[in-house]
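Please go through the protein record below and explain what the tokens say about the fold. Record follows.
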Amino acid sequence: MVEQLGGTVDDTELVKGLVFDKGSTKTAGGPSQIQNAKIALIQFCLSAPKTDMDNNVVVSDYAAMDRILRDERKYILNLCKKIKKSGANVVLIQKSILRDAYNELSLHFLAKMGILVVTDVERTDVEFVCRTLGCTPVPHVDSLSPEKLGTAEHVGDVVLPGSGHKVVKFVGVSNPGHTSTVLLRGSNDLVLAEANRSVHDAQCVVRSLVKQRYLIAGGGAAETEASLRLRELALETTGLDSHCFKAYADALEVIPYTLAENAGLKPIDIVTELRKAHAEGMVGAGIDVKKGRISDMYDMNVIQPLLVTTSAIKLATETVCMILKVDDLVVVM
């Protein structure tokens, strides 16, 4: 899930591949689009080496300064040549905390060699990226080989309409993990956060259907039918059990009542009519919030996974049981 500010929610798209939430890092003349990409994920730094302890180098003349710059240039150029020799034309650089993961000189050499560079890959994302692209992280330049490269049909920068931000898309990935990315768009942070929550809720519903492949009617139909059967059971039993069944039935009716109330309908009339429909044997009867009446939810294709309802009822029951076990409260001032 990648969020980008700008545009509208209608601009949200599903990318069959991988998307980085920032554009590629390049200098003048560097490529922004690569076909038939060979992707390397490197964990070593493309910058001058640094000692473990802080040291100061005092340069007394220009010749020594030129020699230091020349050696640094030669060292970085050698690294870039080894990357090019491996066949990689897209390089992902992991973020480093010890020293600079790259510098302008290394970006210049890679641009001259026609290599697209994506920097600041988080350490926590390395495993996911490698699993998606089919590459292997390389800790040292001497370990870089063609066998450790990932592949993609196209890698390139994409400018998002409405904001001007850039993202990097990896499409045509022969990913063993079947990765897809949802690129969320929104006019402000609140819209983006709400869209993210909505997509997450939808994914959880699909997950529930995969775990338990049963569907029931929505619109408060299942809760009303269960409430009706519990009331019948309460009439057949006596003592405390009867009171428990009746209280549970009353609690289940809160769901269609709240649904009718949120839809701007008259909740008492709607719930009474809904209870009557179920008593007459219409087990799929639910609240049609668009027309403001009782309809058969199966005919309208208003259905939901069984696990969603059973999980909610189970969690509510466990919560009530936990509260009932409380004997006393200690008030701390």
Q: What stands out?
A: The first helix runs from residue 62 to 85. The longest strand covers residues 33-42.
